[in-house]
């Protein structure tokens, strides 16, 4: 019994010890939380980023800087020769030290530079006044018989047989440039002129065995007179666009410059000539009516100085037509040599050769007997 009573007397002591431990742990927890909050609150903010209430009257700059440092506890550094006999306009309001310093130095020719918690007063950088900038250049002259630039040509030889801007020629002149032909991919001169004002350009069915050469070009209601590099063309030997650099259409009478021509106008075709830069092109194509074609175009200089140049272009075409047994087969080559005698004198020798196995339209594939009855 005595042991029991002794144990019962010890119970309150153990309960008190448990309460003491629990209270201590709670206090420690609260202390840790409080310490954490205080640590967060104790994160310091740079003085140059805080805001302060300023009331500094206009006075000497030395006095204004001293008052500024007293309010913000930010050290200011300035050379004596910069602040001597300089007045500050003062400041009033709540601002950051950097913004306040900009106001204090307003109109003094000085500027602040912040380095950590130190503001350095220095001479403001002077404005740099640049001298006049003149941009000059010259527009590259466009070759009046060349491929043109983009879709628009500015000069022409067709109007006056001289290198003249199109805007100075009274005739209506339209130029189909090389770039336009490359984008539209016409297979003949007829197709290349379809979008030219004042011209009706369509082929005559299977004219010339489907070559679509020159049979359907009308200018202002009259059949167009066609020229190659200013010389009248008597055949359709330039119908394929593989040999053509540009096409110029002159609407209206042109007999004064070209002799006897139709009153509707004339079409002048410029063939490919040697280029100043090397050119090496090969293409293969196909189209409707079983058309298959291959072309090549090569140009380069012959001598080192580049005064002698050559160019050779070729094409091979085969295709059918909408007429049975009427096919179109054609092979052609265009060689040329150019000699730059002087900067203003050039001699170009150019030749063109075509081979067309079938040159006439013929739609009969068999011979049928014809019975002629004698008269009675």
From TrEMBL:
Q: Which Pfam families match?
A: Plug
Coiled-coil ranges per UniProt: none
Q: Does the keyword Iron apply?
A: yes
Picking any one GO molecular function of the record gives: siderophore uptake transmembrane transporter activity
The reply to whether Electron transport figures as a keyword in the UniProt entry is no
Query: Which Gene3D superfamilies does UniProt cross-reference here?
Result: 3.55.50.30, TonB-dependent receptor, beta-barrel domain, TonB-dependent receptor, plug domain
- Superkingdom in the source lineage: Bacteria
Q: Where is the signal peptide?
A: 1-41
Q: Which PROSITE patterns match?
A: TONB_DEPENDENT_REC_3 (PS52016)
Which coarse location class applies to the principal site listed for this UniProt protein? membrane
> Any idea where this protein resides?
Cell outer membrane
Q: Where is the Secretin/TonB short N-terminal domain?
A: 75-124
Name the family the entry cites: Belongs to the TonB-dependent receptor family.
PANTHER family on file = FERRICHROME IRON RECEPTOR-RELATED (PTHR32552), FERRICHROME OUTER MEMBRANE TRANSPORTER_PHAGE RECEPTOR (PTHR32552:SF68)
Q: What is this protein called?
A: Ferrichrome-iron receptor
Q: What is the scientific name of the source organism?
A: Novacetimonas maltaceti
The encoding gene: fhuA_4
């Amino acid at each position: 019994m005595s042991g029991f009573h002794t144990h019962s007397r010890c119970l309150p002591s153990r309960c008190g010890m448990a309460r003491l431990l629990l209270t201590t742990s709670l206090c420690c927890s609260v202390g840790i939380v409080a310490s954490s909050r205080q640590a967060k609150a104790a994160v310091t903010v740079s003085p140059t980023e805080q805001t302060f209430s300023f009331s500094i009257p206009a006075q000497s700059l030395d006095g204004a800087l001293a008052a500024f440092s007293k309010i913000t506890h930010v050290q200011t550094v300035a050379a004596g020769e910069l602040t001597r006999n300089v007045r500050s306009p003062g400041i009033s309001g709540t601002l950051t030290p950097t913004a306040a310093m900009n106001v204090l130095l307003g109109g003094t020719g000085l500027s602040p530079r912040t380095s950590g918690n130190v503001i350095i007063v220095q001479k403001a950088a002077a404005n740099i006044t640049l001298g006049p900038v003149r941009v000059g250049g010259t527009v590259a002259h466009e070759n009046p018989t060349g491929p043109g630039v983009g879709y628009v040509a500015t000069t022409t030889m067709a109007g006056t047989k001289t290198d003249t801007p199109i805007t100075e020629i009274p005739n209506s002149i339209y130029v189909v440039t090389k770039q336009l032909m490359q984008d539209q991919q016409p297979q003949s001169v007829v197709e290349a002129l379809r979008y030219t004002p004042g011209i009706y350009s369509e082929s005559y069915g299977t004219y010339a065995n489907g070559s679509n050469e020159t049979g359907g070009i009308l200018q202002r209601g009259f059949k167009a007179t066609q020229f190659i590099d200013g010389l009248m063309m008597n055949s359709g030997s330039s119908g394929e666009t593989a040999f053509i650099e540009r096409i110029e259409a002159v609407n209206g009478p042109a007999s004064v410059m070209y002799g006897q021509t139709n009153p509707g106008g004339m079409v002048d075709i410029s063939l490919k000539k040697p280029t100043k830069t090397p050119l090496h092109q090969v293409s293969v194509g196909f189209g409707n009516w079983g058309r298959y074609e291959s072309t090549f175009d090569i140009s380069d200089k012959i001598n080192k100085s580049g005064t002698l140049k050559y160019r050779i272009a070729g094409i091979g075409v085969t295709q059918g037509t909408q007429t049975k047994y009427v096919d179109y087969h054609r092979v052609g080559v265009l060689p040329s040599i150019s000699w730059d005698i002087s900067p203003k004198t050039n001699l170009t020798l150019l030749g063109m050769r075509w081979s067309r196995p079938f040159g006439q339209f013929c739609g009969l594939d068999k011979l049928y007997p014809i019975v002629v009855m004698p008269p009675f």
